[in-house]
Structure formats: structure tokens, C-alpha cells
Hints:
Strands 1, 2, 3, 4, 5, 6 and 17 form a 7-stranded mixed β-sheet that branches. A 5-stranded parallel β-sheet has the order 8-15-9-10-11. The protein is built from 13 helices and 22 strands. The chain has helices at residues 14-23, 38-43, 45-63, 78-102, 157-161, 177-189, 210-222, 312-326, 356-359, 375-379, 408-420, 425-430, 440-449, and strands at residues 2-8, 28-31, 106-108, 112-114, 119-122, 127-135, 139-141, 154-155, 169-173, 192-196, 226-228, 233-239, 242-247, 252-254, 257-260, 264-266, 299-301, 341-343, 349-353, 365-370, 386-391, 398-404. By secondary structure, the chain is of the alpha/beta class. 47% of the residues are buried. It folds into 3 domains: 2-141 and 265-336, FAD/NAD(P)-binding domain (3-Layer(bba) Sandwich); 154-262, FAD/NAD(P)-binding domain, CATH 3.50.50; 347-449, FAD/NAD-linked reductase, C-terminal dimerisation domain (Enolase-like, domain 1, 2-Layer Sandwich).
Amino acid sequence: MDYEVVVIGGGPGGYVCAIRCAQLGLRTALIERDALGGTCLNRGCVPTKALYSATKLVRQAATAGEMGIAFGPAKIELPRLAAWKDGVVSTLVDGIETLLGKNGVAFFGAGGCLDGPGRVALSTGETLSAERIVLATGSTPIEIPGFSFEDPLVWSSDDALALSEIPERLAVIGGGVIGLELATIYNRLGSLVTVVELLPEILPVVDLDRRTVATLKRSLKLQGIDVRTGTAAQSIGTHGGGPEVRIKDGEAIPVDRALVAVGRRPNSAGLGLETVGVEPDRRGFLPVDGTLRTSAEGVYAIGDLVAGPMLAHKASAEGIALAEALAGGEMRSIDHDRIPQAIFTDPEIASVGLSERTAGERGSLVGRFSYAALGKALGMREPDGFFQVVADGDDHRLLGVQIVGAEASDLISEAAIAVQNGLTLEAIADAIHPHPTLPEGLKEAAENALGRAIHTVNR
Length: 459
């Protein structure tokens, strides 16, 4: 069967690319051996955020007495919670399949790999031919020495999201985004959580300022999550007192399960890259040019297969940009520094653009505003956190925004538009924001940077 475009991988990069290609008149096929939506939808972003939302109710109910509203102890029915989470995922997976059909994308539920220039071999024995092939096979959790995923005591993020049990004691190996999000969820479910991070600070690969990280660390401590940085996890085993994780200096942390969340690696193996002369780098990423083309003519790669933040919305943006270029349009560049990120800890963290530290002398205008000064935040019992804006000292263009606090994941979008379009502090400060709301905090931070804040002391 002949196609103009064949996409291998039905995650947030692949299915979006396939649909956009078909919308633009290209005869398109999508290949996915597992469930549509990829890791993000099935074993990542969506189930994590569904559980984050569900478990937040546990915390809110436990402290509602502060407002004069009392609830009894929360009863967690794990099978029902897992079924609800799975239902959310299933609804979205079914929606993708419907969208593929409505847009005329031929879908093959099979494995696929390159079989020489312009050919894709399916696990069913069929072969597809294509003028252009897009690789979008995503990534998989990294395993580390001493913590084999074959060991029943060791979980990957996939295992943690399966909700098979609530460990009494859980060690999370890795203080990055995935580790801290799952630590938050399991702490709310009742696990005694210890986070072990090899590097000197949590969230080490995210461009965040110390103030933001410190705010999160204080909150994690108050929640009862033990965070140990600069600490190497060496092995897990069962000794006289039961299972334990060995860390540096021979110390042992008693556990019932250990969750390894030290990052992900690209799924570049088994793609038949050798048949077209493409060689991954030492980390497994596929080198691409400014048009996302690999070293092989007609073969492209997007999402977690290529360098840049491993984010679903980055993969989708690349998929759309590539589809439009394949249809004859101009390739839109994607600035990784301007891709927003949201971290679902408690409190949430969201950022876009440059931190104060990274901006350096360029970002000579900095403004902040505390959640504790927002009427809406106090009414929500969410006073922890702040808004921070960093702007160019000469023209006042917004260079970066960090928000740590309730609903930061939603609040960052206004900032993302501002940073993407080079808006100024004045553009944010002069826009009338509704009151009382959380987005007022961004306006107030911009006014603070300009030295004209009303509801906080100017810098």
C-alpha cells in the first residue's frame, strides 16, 4: 500500500502529525502497536494528573475542619480509583481513534519498522511504502544498576500508575518531575515516602530559581515527604527486618517498594534505522536538522526521539509543524526555551522562558507577588507560593515567568503567550484582570517589576 506519509508511533506527536497531514490533503497512515495516545495518555501525563486531582480531595477533606466543615476519614477504594483512572484514559483513547477515522488517516494496530528507503514493515507481515516516514516512537523509563524492573520490589512509573497497591513505605529514586509527582500522589494515598536524589538539588534539569525550589521543598517537608539530595541509591534487597534500599555510607531505608524515576530514554532501538543509514547518538536520540529530517532522505523524527524537553506538548507542536512543512508550508521553528512546563507537585510549579539566573544581566527587571496577598488564594486555603516575572531591562519584554502555587499549571498559559509573542511588562500590567482571581498575581508581579505595585511593597 502506498502513502505520502507514514507515521510510526501513535503518541501525542505521532497521532497529531498524522491527523494534520491528512487535513492538509496528504495520504497518511499511522502505525501503533500499543494503545493510541502513547505513554502520555496511557502511562504518563493523563493518568498522573487524574490521580493528582483525585488524591487532592483527600488532603482537602482532611483539613476542611479549618473552615468549619467536617468530613470523616477518607476511605480509599483502590480498585475503584484505578477503574476510574482507566476510564478517563479509555475515553480519550477512543476519541483519538474516532478523530483518525474522521480525518481519513489509515490506522494500523501493529508494530512497524523501517525496511529500507521508503518502506515500512509491519509485524503483520505487510509492507507499506511511503514518500516520507515520520518516526514518533517516544521513550521508556530508564533502569539503573541495583534496581531491576524485573525485581517485584522495584516499580517503574508504569507500575506505579497501575495502582496495584498502596505501599506502606515507598522510596522514590529520582527527584525529578516524574518522581516528585508520583511521590505527591502516593503520599496523599497514605504511603510514607522518601525521595532519594543523586544530584545536590531536586528538579535538577528544570530551569528554576532557588526560591521556587525552596518553596516546594518546604511544602514537601510539611507534607511528610522525606527528601534526600546528594544521595546515591545503591541497591534494594531483603534483610532481617524486611526490604530496604541501601544508600551511600551503607545507610538503609526500610521500604515496601522502590519506584525508580530517574528519567527516560528514546525508543530508537528496533526501528530498522540501520536499513536507511541513520545512527542514534550515544543516548539514543536521533540527530535531525532544522526541518526535523534525519540523515536519511525522507525520514523524519519528532518528540522524545529528538533532543529537547520530553514533553507531550513539545511533541505535538513538532508534529504539527512537520506536517505543515511536508504539505509544502514553511517549517515553523520551535524555541525550546519558550515551551511551558507544568509540574504537578503540591504546590504546583509552572514555568516558561528563562529563569532569573539564566537571564542574567538581560533580565534586570524582576517582579514577584505572593499567593498570600491574593484574596482568591486565601479563600481557597492555598496561600503558599508566588508569581515571578523576569523582563529585559531595556525594552521590558518578558523573558520568563515562574509560578509556584495552586493551579500554576493553568495560570502559566497567559505567560506563555506573552513570552512567545515578546509582550512587555506593561502589556500584562495594563490588562485589566478580573477580581478576585488567581491570574491577578501575574499582573501584580508585572507591576512590581515596574515599581508601581499597589498590593505589595515595590522592589
